[in-house]
Sequence to fold (650 residues):
Amino acid sequence: MTKTVISIGCDHIVTDIKERVSEHLKEEGYEVIDNGTYDKLRTHYPIYGKKTAEKVVSGEAAFGVVLCGTGVGISSSAAKVPNARVALVRDVSEAEYARKTLNANVVAVGGHITGVDLIKAIVDKFITTDYEETPEHEALIKKINALEGPKPEQTGNEHFFDEFEKKWEEGYYHD
Amino acid sequence: MTKTVISIGCDHIVTDIKERVSEHLKEEGYEVIDNGTYDKLRTHYPIYGKKTAEKVVSGEAAFGVVLCGTGVGISSSAAKVPNARVALVRDVSEAEYARKTLNANVVAVGGHITGVDLIKAIVDKFITTDYEETPEHEALIKKINALEGPKPEQTGNEHFFDEFEKKWEEGYYHD
Amino acid sequence: MKVIIGADKDGAKAKDELVLELKEEGYEILDLSKEGQDFVDVAVAVAKQTLKETNNGEDKSETAPRGIVIDKWGTDAFMAANKLKHVICANVSDEHSARMTRRHNGALMITLGTAVVGSELLKSCAKAYLEAPFDGGRHMVRIDMVNKMA
Amino acid sequence: MKVIIGADKDGAKAKDELVLELKEEGYEILDLSKEGQDFVDVAVAVAKQTLKETNNGEDKSETAPRGIVIDKWGTDAFMAANKLKHVICANVSDEHSARMTRRHNGALMITLGTAVVGSELLKSCAKAYLEAPFDGGRHMVRIDMVNKMA
Fold:
């Protein structure tokens, strides 16, 4: 039997939490594609939000899970991937709603906002809840998808953020 | 200037989270009495809930902070300490309410329910919010305190739980 | 299963909605809410009745009665209820705690605050609590400890 | 500061209460709620107006307008709003996220769901968001990245 594949990603703030979620998913019998980051070295959440969501919309993974401190940064990045439908949640019931009604394919949580057991409960419910296809739900999804603008050269482009990483290394961005 | 003293305690499930909260409090200039547990060896939350709350009602500490997985076990134990007024919360606004209205002196959170940054925000608000003394609030507190029954030989008794620890070691309790 | 429920004025609307749903699902409801009760009154009324119907919380079977209090803040009714001997009460605002507090703490009752918990989350927390079994086993030693304190 | 706000029918009551409080505190309110809007309509209306009044989100000053959407679930309006170019929207149900999403993400708007967030928590989240400054600095590189994607 083929395992269901989950694509997961995080920023450097919550790598430890991501590891615990990933372990949990593997224990539950899922295959995990871990898109990084893999350590606590300062990096930038859009890199991992984009990678994680792209694995989902390409079909390599069934669902995505993204985490940063509050979940906002990485989820708003994931949401800019065409056909990603991202739910940022702090509760199981929201996750369930987003699957049932909007066929959400990426779930986001704040790794420093929500505790690890509640995160696991949220992710479990998200990936085990079926979308309920109705004309109303389909119409809502179509309406949401129609908000997307064109994304030239974005998808699968690993150099998409290079210009900013270069400026970052040159010290352009500083506190 | 004397530092404000915070009494803190946890069970073995969330020792790592307790350490991060304790570090945060010290960085903010508080003195921390850490009542344990100090590692991840399986133990029993009532031991630490009782110890932590007793330091508060005795006056050794200004406030108590207790954590277990959901916060329920350790907070219900702390609540059984005479004159402890314990608030179990997941949000800053609840913590603020409990201080202002009920002069709560111990705050409890679920270390596996609430993320570490939100826990810090909750604890910070709890220990910096003043009780608003009004006749209404005083009457509520009196009404809550009056619910306590007698607690013979409980306070400060380090052997209070010995009978159960003995039974535990003898294998009386098992899954 | 019998659910012993109570609300002060801030929890009344949410309580009525919850009672409707629980009745539909076949729960037997004992509503102890009365005009003019504050959160302490409600917490104590629900706690004492639930203690009475569970042999001081000793009956933690799947069909054992459980208590639910709904007020504005939850954490205040929680504070009051836990002062009573043999009461293990959880203030709940997420489904995982709601489930685990029955499984691990054998919680006699929960409190829910409408200031903090939204309408749907409140219902799903209540149901998660009512549907969860008590795990017993190693968890009993901690409950015995708490009960000695109370 | 100007607050651009919108609610669907499930968020209308909470929105009215919030607007009252914000007006008392001196906020200027632009309420875009209209009969018959679903959460997508509201999210888009608030997002587009807030983009317009902040030069596509570039104005992140302390007095820059911000958007708030209140509906049933929050996470659905969040899903819709973030599809728009230059929108960084946060679905919020705790005060710490509310504050940090402005400080670190410079969030243009937030969504709040009444199914999940209780009445007082909703108001305190909204205020925490409105009162927080944007930290800028290193956080700008991530925002520039998101904005290139959109």
